[in-house]
């Protein structure tokens, strides 16, 4: 079998910049980000979609990049932790809050935690309920984020160091 039969031309917009790549159809987004684009914020933790260290945003929605085939994202906007702050030196409010609250210890999971928190805030603002959202809450209205909501919405991101209380506090700081 010809090696070109497993390759596709793919254009990804990563952190606002287009990248046209010829990729093996079996490569995952995480490996493309880290190996081809030198964006090493997203980490390879479990490589099974269970820890969330590889979380990035695709068209504003969080995904485990270790499970997402890169060629399936042709034309999509991918945002990594490196792209959250934009072009300036000023950090994204969540990045700043994580620093101010010391919401990390080793820092390995932090990029995934921050990307997940960005998406969680957007989901709540759009009225998407979580498992702990009050069933009596009006449908389609923004969901108020308390500590329980934040913990539930970030439950797919694991921290081996146990920095969860500070992570919740950092997210609370941003929504106040």
From TrEMBL:
Domain of life (superkingdom): Bacteria
A UniProt-annotated Pfam family: Fer2
UniProtKB keywords: Iron, Metal-binding, Oxidoreductase
Signal peptide span: none
Domain 2Fe-2S ferredoxin-type: residue ranges: 8-84
PANTHER family, sorted: OXIDOREDUCTASE WITH IRON-SULFUR SUBUNIT (PTHR45331:SF2), OXIDOREDUCTASE, IRON-SULPHUR BINDING SUBUNIT-RELATED-RELATED (PTHR45331)
Entry protein name: 2Fe-2S iron-sulfur cluster-binding protein
Species this chain originates from: Streptomyces similanensis
Lineage of the organism: Bacteria, Bacillati, Actinomycetota, Actinomycetes, Kitasatosporales
């Amino acid at each position: 079998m010809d090696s070109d039969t497993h390759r596709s031309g793919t254009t990804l917009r990563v952190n606002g910049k287009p990248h046209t790549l010829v990729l093996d159809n079996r490569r995952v987004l995480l490996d493309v980000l880290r190996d081809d684009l030198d964006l090493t914020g997203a980490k390879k933790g479990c490589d099974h979609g269970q820890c969330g260290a590889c979380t990035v945003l695709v068209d504003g929605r969080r995904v485990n990049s270790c499970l997402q085939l890169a060629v399936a994202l042709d034309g999509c906007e991918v945002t990594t932790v490196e792209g959250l702050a934009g072009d300036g030196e000023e950090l994204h409010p969540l990045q700043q809050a994580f620093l101010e609250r010391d919401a990390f210890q080793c820092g390995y999971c932090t990029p995934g935690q921050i990307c997940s928190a960005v998406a969680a805030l957007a989901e709540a603002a759009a009225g998407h309920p979580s498992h702990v959202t009050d069933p009596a809450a009006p449908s389609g209205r923004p969901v108020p984020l308390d500590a329980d909501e934040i913990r539930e919405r970030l439950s797919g991101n694991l921290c081996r160091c146990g920095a969860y209380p500070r992570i919740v506090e950092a997210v609370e700081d941003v929504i106040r």
